[in-house]
Amino acid sequence: MSQTRTNARKAAVQALYQWQMTGQNLSEIERQFLEEERLKDAQKSYFTELFHGVPKNLESIDLALSEFVDRPVDNIDPVERAILRIGVYELSFRLDMPYRVVLNEGINLAKYFGADGSHRYINGILDKVAQQTRAIEINAKAKTHSK
Q1: CA-to-CA distance for 33 and 103, rounded, in angstroms?
Q2: By residue range, what is the domain housing residue 35?
Q3: SS3 of residue 67 by DSSP
Q4: How many domains does one find in the chain?
Q5: What's the pTM?
Q6: Residues ≥6 apart with Cβ < 8 Å to 98
Q7: How many C-beta atoms lie closer than 10 Å to residue 72's C-beta?
Q8: What is the pLDDT of residues 107-136, one digit of tens each?
Q9: What angle do CA 70, 75, 79 make, to 5 degrees?
């Protein structure tokens, strides 16, 4: 997985966090990230896709999350909520991305930004969402490993 795409995810977590906390206009937040060169080592097109894709599909993303979280989605720690929303977006809308990559990136983002142990929470939730959204892919992998 490319480092520029990982950096795009890191920037998207920060931008989504800012959006969740302030309710600022998406374009305004994106402009700040571009002006401050916070995307210089990131794949800008992927940052834009995640940053605009999550709010655009927020209802379906939060619905998918609400099936597996232990509290209302809005009560999840804002950093963890941003990471989970990106993960669910990728699992749901980026079928070209292997689910294991999405889970690993979510875990790494939680280790980078989250509280101690939050990576286990992120992994558990994203794994459950993956079981639902990527069942065919997961079952195919399981069959090839059991031969």
Answers
A1: 25
A2: 3-146
A3: coil
A4: 1
A5: 0.93
A6: 137
A7: 10
A8: 999 999 999 999 999 999 999 999 999 988
A9: 105
